[in-house]
Amino acid sequence: MPIFTTAPGRTLILLVLLGLGGCAADRHHRAGLSAMADGQYAEAIRELQQAAELEPRDTRFRADWLQQRETAVRQLLSRAETALAAGREAEAEQHYRAILSFDRDNARAKAGLVQLTRLAQAVDATGRARTALQQGDSEQAAQWLARALADNPNHAEAKALRREIETLQAKDLLSAPSLGAMYQKPINLEFRDASLKMVFEALSRTTGINFIFDREVRGDQRTTVFLKQTGLEDAIDVILTTNQLDKKILNAGSVLIYPNTGGKSREYQDLLVKAFYLANSEAKQTANLLKTVLKLKEVYVDDKLNMLILRETPDTIALAEKLIALQDLDEPEVMLEVEVLEVKRSRLLDLGVKLTDQLTVAPLTNNASNSTTNAASPSFKLSELRNLNASKLGITLPSATMTFHQEDGDAKLLANPRIRVRDREKAKILIGDKVPIVTTTSTSTGFNSENIQYMDVGLKLEVEPDVHLRDEIGLKVALEVSSLVGAVKTTNGSQAYQIGTRSANSVLRLKDGETQVLAGLISDEDRSSANRLPLLGDLPLLGRLFSSQKDDKQRTEIVLSITPRLIRNIQRQSPAAESFWSGTEASLWTKPLQLRNLETPVAVAKPLAAAEPAAKPSEAVPAPVGLRLSWQGPSQAKLGETIQLSLRLDSAEALRAAPMQLLFDPSRLEVVSVRLGDFFGTAPVSFSQLVDSASGRITVGLAGTGPEGVSGQGSLLLIELKPLQADPAVEFSLVGIAPLGPRAAPSLPLRHPLAIVP
């Protein structure tokens, strides 16, 4: 008979199956906890869920499943948010999908996937907007940006691009029309004692530009003009200035002319309102700068927002922008690394025999014949003096104390603070205690009051840095070391303290990272005292048996080590931004009154009375390009092998000097040599180079010693580099050059990409 047909058999089979199910559930439970510990959350939750389903009656399995599922969801959400913030969208998507693999209804994971989809759409729309902006279609770019910000309002690249478009639109809206777009050819003017309106009529016929006169411009005003090969706008400015007139360009082909008086200027000159939000300088100081340099009368200052608002002419606003850019620079900061070491050594030796310095002889009283009485006040009769003998006198012998005491002490107090401070601000360091000083005040009514003030006792250091442009730091150092010597009670019962002080003040000038040690604050005390028996204590050697000597030596020295490290220095503007034209004492202009020659065939405009029509000028020849720079060298280098880069120069104009600066990554590249190229040929050249391997900066001084420069093509610099560490994306950059001779400078930085392979 089969075993499963009987009741005991079926019970046995059921028990076996239940046992096997319990073993399987326990196995899945252990596997889930192990996977959870290894960070494999999706696999761990599946194993724990299977354990709970195999043993639905075991609450322990179900509780662990639910608890670990919440933990896994929390950990994966945190990782997804971190990856999303770092720009790793693919990794964030993996974490969100891992959550949905074991928790299909998790709302935050679903919202995260939706956010990733919208982010991808925003990135695509932003890329299309940038392409449209590069093609000059700002309206289409604005539409794409609107879609991008609708999908992701916090998209940083889209917001920056929108700001760029708004800036360009504001410039287009506020830009004044120019005559250069209407007529770009040079002109000649030859008028002697001619009517002013006649001159402008000739200009109008030659150039096609309309001139409109204010009613107060005198028609009989006469002028004399002889100009050759001059730009149209320069010629008009000279004619108007010499006749106390001014102009307002209405469009590219129309000019309004009016008298240069205060009333007419206020009537015709357009004013621009501009707000300046300052990041570093104070609004009041900047307002004072503008009032002093530009002679502005009204500047609105908002201290809360650190903002300035101006309402001035466009030229004045442009000058104010340049001045504010020169002043509103990041403040330098310095990290001060200070080490203070106080070394104290003490030596105490107390050695010898100390005897009492009195021997007392006194008569004995009747009540104490075998002992001495108080020697200070013996009591006896005068008649008894005749009967004094050895049996009636008592002697108090001196006592002797032998001392064998020696102390050796060494103490060190080390403080190593690091403090960050702004330029020309005091940094204060105090290591010590505050000692209470009690002051008692009494009134005529008998009322007494106590006032407690605290005095700093210990090590006090004050440092004020002054950052210079050459990465040097001036330091005003004030060091004071004080200690509590003792306490003294006054007549009224108050307690005063005796404080010992050592101080040092110095002014230093250190380089970035240079360490200076200040030492010499030494307190050396040597005290010696002796207690000897007269005559016997002065004997050599044996005198030690009849004397006691105490030698106390204490020496304290303070050593200060200070190292300034420059965190940020002043980033100066370019030389062109540090000096600019500002007009005359009477008016503010962004360019000087000048006549620029145009080297092209010109039209000659003569007085109308000559009855000769002015000939049209020929087209202008484009001006030669100033210079072109380019890198020549390999784009890939093997680790440990030396490569050479050449800085090529193509200059149509004579180059006399070219000081420059270059940057490199010192952890990736080593500069082996910097040599002069063949551009200057055999011409005498002054060449210098300085390689700062710590900061990764190369400073090159290059100047021809002859009066004339050199033009043409060739190699300006030859640089040998040695790769130190593999990196697929390393750059060697020219970040600054000041060419002397060519009228134009190249766009910087000029980078040379380099891939370093093992």
Automatic annotation (TrEMBL):
Q: For this UniProt entry, what's an example GO CC term? A: type II protein secretion system complex
One annotated GO molecular function: carbohydrate binding
GO biological process terms on file: polysaccharide catabolic process; protein secretion
Q: Which InterPro entries match?
A: Bact_Secretion_Sys_Channel, CBM2/CBM3_carb-bd_dom_sf, Cohesin_dom, GspD/PilQ, NolW-like, NolW-like_sf, Secretin/TonB_short_N, T2SS/T3SS_dom
Residues annotated as domain Secretin/TonB short N-terminal? 209-260
Q: Which UniProt keywords apply?
A: Cell outer membrane, Membrane, Signal, TPR repeat, Transport
Record keyword Transport present: yes
Q: Main location per UniProt?
A: membrane
- Keyword Transport in record: yes
TPR repeat feature ranges: 25-58
Specify one Pfam family. Cohesin
Looking up SMART domains in the UniProt record yields: STN, TPR
**Per its UniProt record, what SUPFAM superfamilies does this chain match?**
Carbohydrate-binding domain (SSF49384), TPR-like (SSF48452)
Where does the record say this protein resides? Cell outer membrane; Membrane
Q: Which protein family is named in the record?
A: Belongs to the bacterial secretin family.
What is this protein called in UniProt? General secretion pathway protein GspD
Q: State the organism named in the record.
A: Chitinimonas arctica
